[in-house]
Amino acid sequence: MSNLYAKSGVNLSQAEMLCKKLADLDTNFSDFTGQINLNKNIILASCDGIGSKIIPLYEKKLYRNIALEVVAANLNDLATKNAIALAFYDYIAVHTLDSDAVFTIISELKNVLDAYNCKLLGGETSELPHLLRENAIDICGFVIGSGNNSSSNISDGDIVIALKSSGVHANGFSLIRKFYCDGKLSESDFEKCLEPTYIYYEYIRKLWENNLIKSAANITGGGLYSNIIRIVPKNFDLQLDYSKLLKSDIFKKLYDLCGAEVYQVFNCGAGFCLIADKNNFSDIFNICKEFDPIILGKVVEK
Predict the structure, then answer these.
(1) Residues 198, 73: contact at Cβ < 8 Å?
(2) Beta partners for residue 218, in sequence order
(3) One CATH from 3.30.450.40, 3.90.650.10, 3.40.605.10, 3.20.20.70 for 159-301
(4) pTM across the whole model
(5) Quick one: which of 99, 10, 18 has its CA closest to 52?
(6) Residue ranges per domain, the chain?
(7) What does the pLDDT profile of the chain (302 residues) look like in tens digits?
(8) Which fold has domain 31-147?
């Protein structure tokens, strides 16, 4: 196995080690969405940024895309539970404040959230010239929701369903940018990588409402297996058919550059995954047909 991602500056083995340590502190830390029980209500929350994808988006003044990305990161995480998004906060850090750019990002953030009936309550903008390099910016979102207990009665033989991605989403950009700077990805390839992340939230909500799924995973940093196994009880494992992936040109190109490491870094065309009874596949397909659902594999007992 190659180690290209680590050479680009991101060490997945250290990240996995940290996640394991954090999981020992609290079970919430290993999930996509944390929750607390408040009397009869369940409060859920997620926090996520968009990684170094923000660098080219900011350089190209694609401020609306920055807003779309941070909403997608958080609503897709929240969708892994049976939750309704209620409120959102943002945190923006800059080297030097460009008030017009930041205002545009926040305005677009509000517009995107309004479409999902999620209220932007406020946030924080920090000017950090001694911490960030010139022209640098970072963004993080925080979503709060309410919900019901999500089904988790996973059993042997349940299917893993993959919903297609719009591309690489916001994952692996340290490696993508290195490939681009080294001339291994063309300008056209790079533009494809900047496609906005799909927001699956409203579709997954319908699946939860109709009791069609048992668990769900947002495929983010760390690739397919490591994200899906997080939502599977420890006495089960996954059998995934990777031959069903890498259908688009950009993933074929990334596979040529990365080899098998591509599955550890990128979503490989599967942006969101579901675990369900095999008898529910037809109904799930009808609700999520925009994302060309496929059966990627199954859950098996260890």
Answers:
(1) no
(2) 272
(3) 3.90.650.10
(4) 0.92
(5) 10
(6) 31-147, 159-301
(7) 458 766 666 666 676 676 667 666 766 666 788 888 887 789 999 999 999 999 999 999 999 999 999 999 999 999 999 999 999 999 999 999 999 999 999 999 999 999 999 999 999 999 999 999 999 999 999 999 999 876 679 999 999 999 999 999 999 999 999 999 999 999 999 999 999 999 999 999 999 999 999 999 999 988 899 999 999 999 999 999 999 999 999 999 999 999 999 999 999 999 999 999 999 999 999 999 999 999 999 999 99
(8) 60s Ribosomal Protein L30; Chain: A; (3.30.1330)
Residue found under tokens 């680009």:
8
